[in-house]
Amino acid sequence: MLLENYSNNYPEVGCDEAGRGCLCGPVTAAAVVLPKNFRSDLLNDSKKLTKKNRVLLRRKIEEEALTYGVAFVSHERIDEINILNASIEAMHLAIDKLNITPKHIIIDGNRFKPYKDIRYDTIIKGDGKYLSIAAASILAKTYRDEYMEKLHLEFPEYDWKQNKGYPTKKHREAIAKYGATDQHRMTFKLL
Q1: How many domains would you assign to the chain?
Q2: Which of 3, 22, 91, 113 could disulfide-pair with 15, CB 3.0 to 4.6 Å?
Q3: Residue 41 burial (CB < 10 Å; 0-12/13-18/19+)?
Q4: Beta carbons of 91 and 52 less than 8 angstroms apart
């Protein structure tokens, strides 16, 4: 059972990202403020859910969240400032999109940089502990997956529809055969 709040500060926003370990495409972050007493027996860390359940939950989160934001940071920017800084930047950009100012930020993981003067806490495996971080993980993952499925149409030989840019055997074989695309992160070990 996921917990509703980490702090006693309301509204509290949960943040997570998707695509950190990918070889191409953007890193995507989401920030979600859920209403008090939000309920979902299905909601969990996005990696533990089927695609069908992620899509169902995304709809519920978008309809019932008090506010949410999703942001992308490009592969060029990742190469410029590194993946950790790009992930944090994406989270900041997602928080910027909220139409409520949160009193507390909870982040999945162990690294973050101060956002304005709002208190924050990093929580390892937070997407499996807190509802708002789990909700953010679902939005980040579904938005990024959609982005990669569109890119797949331009670059079908890399199988991004299936691997979403992660370093699968098929993806690495395509890089070896066809080279890197203009969507690849050049500071990552591609082969």
Answers
A1: 1
A2: 91
A3: exposed
A4: no
| Residue 174 lies inside a defined structural domain of this protein | no
- Structural domain of residue 54, as residue ranges? 12-144
CATH number where 126 lies: 3.30.420.10
Looking at the DSSP bridge assignments, the partners of residue 122 are 107
Q: DSSP characters for 88-117?
A: HHHHHHHHHT-SS--SEEEEESS----BTT
Q: What whole-number distance in Å separates Cα of residue 17 and Cα of residue 107?
A: 9
Count CB neighbours of 8 within 10 A.
8
Summarize pLDDT for 113-133 with one digit per residue, the tens.
999 999 999 999 999 999 999
Amino acid at 122: T
Q: Is residue 96 part of a domain?
A: yes
Residue with tokens 């691997």: 163
Does residue 86 belong to any structural domain of this protein?
yes
132-46-81 Cα angle (round to 5): 80
Buried b / exposed e along 87-118 (16+ C-beta atoms within 10 A): bbbbbbbbbeebeeebebbbbbbeebeebeee
As a whole number of angstroms, the distance between CA 20 and CA 148 comes to: 14
Rounded to whole angstroms, the Cα distance separating 80 from 102 reads 29
Per-residue pLDDT at 83 exceeds 90: yes
* Mean pLDDT computed over 143-159: 97
